[in-house]
Amino acid sequence: MTAAPFTRLRLDGVGRRFGDTDALAGLDLTIEQGEFIALLGPSGCGKSTALNCLAGLLPLTAGSIWQDERRIDVLPPERRGFGMVFQNYALFPHLTVRRNIEFGLQMRRLPKPEIARRTAAALALVHLEEQAGRLPGQLSGGQQQRVAIARAVVLEPSLVLMDEPLSNLDAKLRLEMRTEIRRLHQSLGLTTVYVTHDQEEALSMADRLVVLRQGRVQQVGTPEDLHARPANWHVADFMGFRNLLPATAVGAGPGVVGVDVEGVRLAGTAVAAVTAGERVAVGVRPEDLHVVDAPAPGEGPSAEGDGRLAATVSVVEYQGREFAVEVAAGGLRLHLRTAARLVPGDPVTLRVPPDRLLVFPADGGDGAGGGLPAVPAALGEVGGDARRSPVATAAAT
Amino acid sequence: MSAPAAAPSRGADPGLRHRLAERGVDARLLLLVPGMVFVVGLFVYPFCYGLGLSFQPAKGGGPFADYQRFFSDAYQRDTIGKTLRLAVPAALLNVLASVPIAYRMRGRFRGKRLLTTALVVPITLGTVLTAEGLLTFLGPRGWLNRALTGLGIVDEPVTLIQNYWGVFFSIVISGFPFAFLLILSYLSGIDPSLERAAATLGAGWWQRFRRITLPLLAPGLATTFCLTFVLAFSVFPSAYLVGDPTGETRVISIAAYEAAYQQYDYAFGSTIAVIMGAIELAVIGLVLAWRSRFYAGTTGGKGS
């Protein structure tokens, strides 16, 4: 039951049903040794289910998990040799920090001197030598977090699983621990699977991201892939495309197509084939909309030609170095970020770069249902605020 | 003291009121009055009265004469041992039997409420009905003995009533639901992710139970033992109904009852009751001393 190192961990059609609902379905993923994988998605998307299946805490109802050529999904958690960091840390409250870290080593029946040596090294790794004799309840949240990490990595596990380990920390500590976890991952040569609902966290830490929604994989790719080319509007919604609106295609794609958004003509880049007249979703990040000085020629709200659009400022929020601004152009409401000092009622001219305005098929491309809501304003508000929009994240950090 | 701009119109010194409020003294304390009246009138006063009575022997001979009389008379003294022999094993059995069942039942499953209800019913029935049932079921012509003799397991009916075992079963039946419900709630308070964490660290089920759950549960076990022990130690109706009240199950409460209501020696009855209380306190003290060796903080896992 030692932590056998592996070169490849393969999830083959992994699924988990609870009653009649698929919490996770058809997860295919190959994890190379040394990779940092983030499972990303809103709550209830199946990311924690996937992690628990991997840890062995939840039996699979479909598929299999292979560690190189060895099938491991039939093993109980104590025989898999994976380390796990829980969302609430799950430190043993009756054991001191030192005993918490020793626990796994004692379970392996290692000789006493080795246990002492490795525990001391783990304590030093997370800078908790002075707190070794304390109980978890006497530590701050960040210190508890570090104990949980030390307890998991002291076993030198072949795979470390982390279940939203930073979600209980305050914003400042979250940033520090993010760097700390990434540093440990690199210096110890760990293979990590990290579950989070925070797209910023996932983008900044992971080598590859797996975006899940309603138990199904939406997209697997590098942070750059997901940031620049979300596969569908659900991923876009999660990746900070706060301006996500229902529209109708005017031209046909792939490539640059014209779209009609609430009566406003815009040009965008289709991520998948669309036909003229098809209902689509268009998305653009607030930071990709620019306020330009030169006013648009007076032909009304249209941006198909040069990507310029006349609009009126409706809401301005101060965000430190920038302002988050909501503008209205005809029936269209857009969020953008600008350093310009604007006042509600100001007329502005926007540039909407056609390569940054992405056009998605309206069904999300995965057949999982859940079309865009009919009212664009409602989508802008709910979609932007309920999840972590870039504006909200910037304000929180 | 300079009066503030809005001088108190009712004449109360605001400084005094604030100082009292700092110590938690305010009008809400009046809410305690009904409860205090109840406790003083129905518990503290009778207790002190009985304690005083125990030092005033009816036959004279100094304040400790009745205590000497109790401990010098083997017939009375032996009731302590008889009661402990019933109460300690019964309380232990109740606690130990509850742990695995509660451990299995702490999760959510279909029919949990029905099972819990079934387990609670014995509490509501009361000891007399339980005793009646035991007399019928365990008696020489009861189902159990007829089944045992019918199956050829025993030749003679086993004597399970009018002796130690009848009282023991009765105590277990009425005490088990208490123990079970208490332990179930203690177990439910232990964060299940602790055991999962132990599993990912390589601990098998026995190690998880012994190293994580049991130490966190120990204080709850101690409390549960104390409560079921006190219930069992004061056994009275079943010692009469299904026991052998003149011999094997002449428990200490029978001795107190006989002294007070058959010999009309209230002072001696009070003495026996005080001794009974002192023994209970001694056992509870021992258990709590053992308990204090264990971690007694939060079991929610986050430790905050």
What proportion of the residues of chain B form beta strands (DSSP E)?
Answer: under 5%
Label the structural class of chain A.
alpha+beta
- Choose one word for the global shape of chain B: flat
- Would you identify the CATH H-level superfamily of the largest domain in chain A? P-loop containing nucleotide triphosphate hydrolases
- Roughly how many Å is the radius of gyration of chain A? 24 Å
CATH class (first level) name of the largest domain in chain A? Alpha Beta
**Which fold does the CATH topology of the largest domain in chain A refer to?**
Rossmann fold
Distance between the termini of chain A: 42 Å
Helix content of chain A: 25-40%
**Low-confidence regions of chain B:** 1-9
Separation of the first and last Cα atoms of chain B: 43 Å
**Biggest β-sheet description of chain B:** none
Short note summarizing the structure:
The complex is a heterodimer of chains A (397) and B (304). By secondary structure, chain A is of the alpha+beta class.
Structure description:
The complex is a heterodimer of chains A (397) and B (304). Chain A has 397 residues and is α+β, with helices and mostly antiparallel strands. Chain A folds into 2 domains: 8-224, Rossmann fold, CATH 3.40.50.300; 242-396, Nucleic acid-binding proteins (OB fold (Dihydrolipoamide Acetyltransferase, E2P)). Helix content of chain A is 26%, strand content 32%. Chain A has a 6-stranded mixed sheet, sandwiched between helices. Chain A has a 5-stranded mixed β-barrel with strand order 11-12-13-20-14. In chain A, helix 2 packs across helix 3 (112-125). The radius of gyration of chain A is 24 Å and the shape is elongated. The two termini of chain A are 42 Å apart. With 304 residues, chain B is mostly helical. Chain B has a single domain (64-291), classed as Orthogonal Bundle (MetI-like fold). Chain B has helices spanning 14-22, 33-54, 65-72, 74-105, 112-125, 127-138, 143-150, 164-188, 192-200, 205-233, 237-241, 252-262, 266-291. The longest helix of chain B has 32 residues, at 74-105. Residues 1-9 of chain B have low confidence and may be disordered. The A-B interface holds A 1, 55-57, 76-84, 86, 88-94, 103-104, 107-108, 135-139, 141, 144, 151-152, 155, 161, 168 and B 191, 193-194, 196-204, 207, 211-212, 215-216, 294-295, 297-304.
